[in-house]
Amino acid sequence: AFTCGKIRHIKYGSLCACFYLLPCCCGGEKTQLVLNVDKQLEEVRELLEQMDLEVREIPIQSRGMYSSRLKSYKQEMEKLEKEFKRSRIAYSDEVRNELLGDDGSSSESQRAHLLDNTEKLERSSRRLEAGYQIAVETEQVGQEILTNLHSDREKIQRSRDRLRETDANLGKSSRILTSMLRRIIQNRILVFILGAIILLTIVLAIYFNLRGH
């Protein structure tokens, strides 16, 4: 099942913290930090691909909300990658300036540019956190909907079974009523025949009685 909580396994907070530390590091520490960020971004890409596959397995009626959340994740990921790319370019320029011996004003300008990138990354991080919270809540709502649908399906199945049972009982009752009606008709015919015989007997008795006189 699609689980928005898996995103946190990559620790976006740690990823963004690496961006914040870039302007403050130098030399080998900065190189190691850049490699670490690159590795974590690759892990996030793999996770998004896995989530994309999971979304395709979700029923169509519930897929829309998860697809929209995944799309927002990918957009935020693209922003992070662009910011990281800018930071790497700035880092490369800084290294080149250090090798060429540029003055302090260039270094200050570079640091200001990096701080600006850091602020952008911080805003992206906040949007991601808000998006994760919404996604988790959306997933919970989706799970409740699926649970309710399953419960409704069971209720419909039980109602269908009761209807079949009622239909069977109605068929049985109809046969019983038909049998009773047939007996009533037969009884009435017998009563009519008996009445006719009795009436005929009375008429014959009167006839022979009058004839004897």
TrEMBL record:
Cellular compartments per GO CC: cytosol; endoplasmic reticulum membrane; ER to Golgi transport vesicle membrane; Golgi apparatus; late endosome membrane; SNARE complex
Cellular compartment(s): Endomembrane system
Keywords, ordered alphabetically: Coiled coil, Membrane, Protein transport, Transmembrane, Transmembrane helix, Transport
CDD domains per the UniProt record, alphabetical: SNARE_Vti1a
Gene3D superfamilies reported for this sequence: 1.20.5.110, t-snare proteins
Domain T-SNARE coiled-coil homology: 113-180
Topology in membrane: Single-pass type IV membrane protein
Highest taxon above the source species: Eukaryota
Keyword Coiled coil: yes
GO biological process, one term: intra-Golgi vesicle-mediated transport
GO molecular function: SNAP receptor activity; SNARE binding
Coiled coil: 30-90
Annotated protein name in UniProt: Vesicle transport through interaction with t-SNAREs 1A
Organism: Sinocyclocheilus grahami
